[in-house]
Design brief:
Blueprint lengths: L4 E2 L22 E8 L3 E9 L10 H5 L2 E3 L2 E5 L5 E4 L1 H14 L7 H14 L11 E10 L11 E11 L10 E6 L16 H16 L4 E5 L7 E4 L3 E6 L2 E4 L10 H12 L4 E3 L4 H9 L3 E8 L3 E10 L2 E4 L7 H15 L9 E3 L1
Parallel strand pairs: 1-3, 9-10, 9-16, 13-14
Antiparallel strand pairs: 2-3, 2-8, 4-7, 5-6, 5-7, 6-18, 7-8, 10-11, 12-13, 12-15, 15-16, 16-17
Bound molecules: 2-OXO-4-methylpentanoic acid (COI).
The site of 2-OXO-4-methylpentanoic acid has 7 residues, from loops.
Length: 353
């Protein structure tokens, strides 16, 4: 259990009014703890949100040794606050840490740090429909050293951002570009982790898609460039001929918390569910035969995001009737209902803090 020293701000910021957007506004406080080889994790504190001061020779700036997580806090009408499956994030943070040669954090310490910080800034949890407090835990290598080697020092920090929908169009179906030039990840790389590099690598494809009016890129596998993997900020699901289908986790795909949640819900509702390879060609054929019923992305930030249009090379496919599908809507309502405490929580995913 961490001994967290709390220093409260003496100049609280003005709370936002109106549209929040995503990840633009930050609360009054942040969590920070330090790792050194000799002392392990120590000096856990909650302090006023402030800039960092680091040497220009710090490892993070040169070799990108960084990992992060994303989860959310919610407040119900009676003022109770909840996290959603924070144990999954704690575990995945350590999977990422191992791959990037960074120190692990005991799962209970990760959850305690998140919960304590959220409680400190509980007045910042927004309650308008579609909003929540986005939580961003992250770890950076802080040793001052230019050799290529795992750092001997790290900082683990958490910041909070009251946010609305990830996509500015909210639940309106987004347009997704299936990318066949750039790739995001290959097996043996870091695709299954949450490290900044996975997202930096994706920017060129995303810019290309944006230039053509598409919101995000659906990546193909890095070897055959044939099978769909995931979208820039979410996992991907298809409803094909009555079956719920999603790419199998193969080492280059992020094991999303919302992905896992959707699979559990669909299984419990009795839908036929398949985790398997899905080629872009299969999607084209299914759409031509009228069998591509729904497409949606899943993610902590994105929640359930319906996809209305897919583009692959010269083909532009409209999914279903271009509107949010029945299953996508049911999943959105159920997932957000469980998160907000308005739906039953049969899997005990909600954690009151
Ligand atoms: C999340 O959904 O929490 C993510 O980390 C995706 C993101 C890059 C916004």
């Amino acid at each position: 259990m961490l001994n967290i020293k709390v220093t409260r701000t003496t100049s609280p910021k003005k709370k936002p009014e109106g549209e929040l957007g995503f990840g633009k506004i930050f609360t009054d406080h942040m969590f920070e703890m330090t790792y050194t080889k000799n002392q392990g994790w120590h000096d856990a504190k909650i302090k006023p949100f402030s800039n960092l001061s680091l040497s220009p020779a710090t490892v993070i700036f040169h070799y990108g040794q960084e990992i992060f997580e994303g989860l959310k806090a919610y407040k119900d009408e009676s003022g109770k606050c909840y996290l959603f499956r924070p144990d999954m994030n704690a575990r995945r943070m350590n999977t990422s840490a191992k791959r990037l040669c960074m120190p692990e954090i005991p799962e209970e310490d990760f959850i305690q740090a998140v919960a304590e910080l959220v409680k400190t800034d509980r007045d910042w949890i927004p309650t308008n429909p579609g909003t929540s407090l986005y939580i961003r835990p992250f770890m950076i290598a802080t040793e001052e050293f230019l050799g290529v080697a795992p750092s001997n020092e790290y900082k683990f920090m958490i910041i909070l951002s009251p946010s609305g929908a990830y996509y500015k169009d909210g639940l309106n179906p987004v347009k997704i570009w299936i990318e066949d030039e750039y790739v995001r990840a290959v097996r043996g790389g870091t695709g299954f982790t949450k490290t900044g590099a996975n997202y930096a690598i994706g920017l060129a494809g995303q810019e290309k898609a944006h230039a053509d009016g598409y919101s995000q890129v659906l990546w193909l596998d890095g070897i055959e460039r044939k099978y769909v993997e995931e979208v820039g900020a979410m996992n991907i699901f298809f409803v094909i001929d009555g079956k719920v289908v999603t790419p199998l986790l193969n080492g280059s795909i992020l094991p999303g918390v919302t992905r896992n949640t959707v699979l559990a819900l669909c299984n419990s509702w009795g839908y036929p569910v398949e985790e398997r390879k899905i080629s872009a060609e299969e999607l084209l054929t299914a759409q031509k035969n009228g069998k591509l019923e729904e497409v949606f992305g899943t993610g902590t930030a994105a929640v359930i995001s319906p996809v209305g249009t897919l583009r692959f090379q010269d083909e532009v496919l409209t999914v279903g009737d271009g509107k949010i599908g029945t299953l996508s809507q049911k999943l959105y309502d159920t997932v957000t209902g469980i998160q907000l405490g308005t739906c039953e929580d049969p899997f005990n995913w909600r954690m009151e803090i």
